[in-house]
Amino acid sequence: MARRMLLSLLNGPIGRFVLGFLERVAPGQPGSLRILTYHRLESPDLFDQQMRFIAERFHVISMQELFDAGGSGSELPPNAVMITFDDAYEEFADHAWPILRRYQLPVTLFVPTAFPDNPDHQLWWDKLHHALTQTSRRGFIENGTYSYPLSTAKQRKAAYKQLRIYLKSVQHHEALAEVDRICQQLEVASTENDVLSWERLRQLAAEGVTLGAHTRNHPLLTQISLDEAVTEAVGSLADLENEIGDTLPIFAYPSGGHTKEIAEALKQAGFAFAFTTERGTNNMRQLRPQQMHRNNITPYASLSVLRAWLLIATVNPKQLLKRKKAA
Ligand SMILES: [Zn+2]
Q1: Three-class SS of residue 108?
Q2: Strand, coil or helix: what is 215?
Q3: Which of 118-127, 282-291, 316-325 has the lowest mean pLDDT?
Q4: Residue 214 alpha carbon to ligand 1 centre in Å
Q5: In the predicted model, what is the mean pLDDT of residues 9-16?
Q6: How far is the CA of 116 from the centre of ligand 1 (A)?
Q7: C-alpha distances in angstroms, 25 versus 18, 22, 28, 65?
Q8: How far is residue 201's CA from residue 37's CA, in Å, rounded to a whole number?
Q9: ∠ at Cα 247 (241, 251), nearest 5°?
Q10: Domain positions in the chain
Q11: Four-residue CA torsion sign, 169, 266, 281, 91
Q12: Ligand 1 center to residue 38 CA distance, Å?
């Protein structure tokens, strides 16, 4: 309820006035970089509004420009922003890329490389979502000690949200087995994944999209062994090199899951930059290249919500909390 009220305030004229004021008094610092992360798009129109705003107010840099700037930060323009998309869904090519191209905005697409041209290999949350939205089963579904009611669409949506949180808390192989078990109970025929084919990815790369590694099978790296994590990361970069050609040594952690040990192992494996889902601004003079901050924008986010996240990124709430604790 409070969230809904805050959103309607933010999207209204008062919200826009406050955002405009804060944007003037708290601009992005020189030598700092804010990175946006998208996955799916609910509305191409909303994305169009966001990109028009970004094109007018920010300097969007490409992944290559980040490499060129190295650790110095001196070459980054003020108000630098980078745009990334994870998971390489078809809607990126169908809806996002034409808009990005129109505004001449560079973008990086992180690809989980076991999924292109492998339609039966589903991303586990998509498989779960499909089964829960399509099932004609009602009553309850059991998951260990929990049971979730399925009578209404709202309950099935809640079950999806709660199961998704639970499944991220267990070992990856356990999560996959549990998704299979739940989907069997829901009695829904599985569908094909909607990840871009290698042919379409090659086309996008030829048109200027930077492709990056995002593991092969999209496990949470904190829910597999360190050796498996490195194999997944290195394997996805090798797949991109085989299928696309020269690829920058960059990596996005699936769902952001990482530890200092994993970041160090990726550095040793040759990844120059690795991207988390921890919100914040990257200060180019104190960069942690294997733990880059990114700011997730949900498919439903309005322009005002995007502007608010960009402002919050400059504040970096986690760093503020740390400072408060230390004080
Ligand atoms: Zn992902």
Answers
A1: strand
A2: coil
A3: 316-325
A4: 7
A5: 81
A6: 14
A7: 11, 5, 10, 27
A8: 19
A9: 105
A10: 2-115+197-326, 124-186
A11: negative
A12: 10
Name the phi and psi angles at 138, rounded to 5.
Answer: -120, -165
What single-letter amino acid sits at 234?
Answer: V
Q: Can you give the pTM of this predicted structure?
A: 0.91
- Report CA(298)–ligand 1 centroid distance (Å): 13
In the reported structure, the alpha carbon of residue 66 is separated from the centroid of ligand 1 by a whole-number distance in angstroms of 21
Q: What is the pLDDT of residue 267?
A: 97
Ligand 1 centroid to Cα of residue 87, in Å, is 5
Alpha helices in the chain (DSSP H): 2-11, 13-25, 44-57, 63-69, 90-91, 97-102, 124-134, 153-168, 172-186, 198-207, 226-243, 260-268, 303-315, 317-326
Question: How would residue 118 be classed by pLDDT, with cut points 50, 70 and 90?
Answer: very high
| Residue 39 Cα to ligand 1 middle (Å) | 7
Give residue 126 CA to ligand 1 midpoint distance, Å: 11
Segment 186-207, tens digit of pLDDT:
988 888 999 999 999 999 999 9
Ligand 1 center from residue 198 Cα (angstroms): 17
CA of 179 to the centre of ligand 1 (A): 17
Ligand 1 centroid from CA 16, angstroms: 31
| CATH fit for domain 2-115+197-326, picks 3.20.20.370, 3.90.920.10, 3.40.50.150, 3.40.50.720 | 3.20.20.370
- Which of 14 and 175 is assigned the larger pLDDT? 175
pLDDT bin (cut points 50, 70, 90) of residue 313 is confident
pLDDT at 71: 56
- Are 108 and 83 in contact, with CB atoms under 8 Å apart? yes
Residue 8 reports pLDDT greater than 90: no
Q: What are the pLDDT digits (tens) for 253-289?
A: 999 999 999 999 999 999 999 999 999 999 888 889 9
Nearest to 119 by CA among 61, 197, 46, 33: 197
